[in-house]
Model the fold of this input.
Amino acid sequence: MAFSIYNTLTRKTETFEPVHEGRVGMYVCGPTVYGHAHLGHAKSYVSFDVLVRWLRYLGYDVTYVQNITDVGHLTDDADQGEDKLAKQAVREKRHPMAIAEYYTASYFADMDQLNCLRPDISPRATGHIPEQIELVQTLLDKGFAYVVNGSVYFDVATFKDYGKLSGRNREDMQAGARVEVNAEKRNPADFALWKKAEPGHIMQWNSPWGRGYPGWHLECSVMSMKYLGQTVDIHGGGIENQFPHHECEIAQSEAANGVPFVKYWVHNNMVTVNGQKMGKSLGNFILLKQLFQGDHEVLSRAYDPLAVRQLILQSHYRSPIDFSDAALTAAQSGYDKIARSVMTLRNRKVTALQGEVDQVVCVELDRLQAKFEEAMNDDLNTSVALSVLFELIRLSVGQLENDSATVETLDAIDNLFHRLGGNVLGVVKEQYTQAAENDDELLDHLMQLMIEQRQTARKNKDFKAADVFRDRLAECGVILEDKPGGITTWRRK
RNA sequence: GGCGGCGUAGCCAAGCGGCCUAAGGCGACGGUUUGCAAAACCGUUAUUCGUGGGUUCGAAUCCCACCGCCGCCUCCA
Done:
């Protein structure tokens, strides 16, 4: 069965066939780096990470490009609103590029925790200003754009396909227009390609039209074309970007190139928190760092990044997901079960006997792999794929209870955990350690416990036992030092 | 006002015309195990899919109506 994916452009699930056989170019709208990543980023990038991993599993040579938006565009196309990066820069009293640098590093750190593979290319918008100017010039030359007072706008009336992605037409939008009309535009639906910089605007560049900065749809078109060609196989992003962002990308790209910009548009759905849209003003805005540390009033504890990943994969990427403390707790329990089962299996391999692979187990493994592949091929049904992992656990448990299970049989099971749970879903780790993330704190507590036990022995004049404590700890590389006043401290050797 | 989605057990969630008297996870309950716990393991937990009609030999799955919830249409992943 071939891989099928839902294409927003055609509103159908289609069999996936890349433009060039065996190779896939995939572009995903990346974050604007003016703050730490939040739950919405997690859902989006975990979903696309699984898509990349699945394509690679299928044998495609994937080039995954995800931009970093390091120039904060205006909040709308009218001459109002603020540049988000500049705003944050003022708040933090740092240069906008320092802000971008800082939050880019933060973003990658969070995505690493979620076990998202790094994109092959992470191009920065500010590193592609010449290319963006070039595209604007092309559009002007071809008559799809016009200059007004140092700004350049795309003339929507010249592009007949405008609205094909989002199912809108210009008439409807004019009827329901809410955005204050920018007097410079010929048509309210026209969008900025290049904006004239106001005197106070920090991030600005020279252009044929004067000092200014690029419109917010431009960077994705330019960087997608530069690294992946005029027609990319997959362009992904959040559903909220379907209009106007992606619609505008299509318009400017196809007007310039005369060929389709994207073959498959893939959009993932949004997250809610406790049933409501996540928003800064609603008090339910959760950053990933807060989630991983349990540092938020709606959270009862810290959650393992991979448990969060598992929660995301439990539902479909095109369905909205509601994050709640209860949902996270449930996902954490499920994740712990997988981790413990895999650990138990791997530990057992050390002592198991050598021999033949159990053929009955093999047949079952083949069945599970087929079920997994079928689910993933069906528009990435990660929920069913994940359920296969739990079936695999049951199979594994059965073998662990069987004293004559061979290393080879256990290996075959582990191999499937590794390939399906690890390589594809990214919830099974390569290596598990008993140690917690915050080892130092744990160590402190354990040492305190040890010292208390030894104090009790000393109080009872059981110096022999007290010495055994000290000697055994010394063997572990820990030195105990008895200070005056009955205080005992410890240090590493 | 325009566009789109959703409503399946206590909770999350898959299924999208017959294999469904509906996966999987969490929780709960009963049992095995345990000095007691924890963990682990076994079992039970929806004859029914928001409500009411209709189409069909057959519907959770298609159509209509109604009720309820959510998102997008302004930057947002």
Q: What stands out?
A: The two ends of chain A are 60 Å apart (CA to CA). Residues 94 and 459 of chain A are 58 Å apart (CA to CA). Residues 75-81 of chain A have pLDDT under 50 and may be disordered.
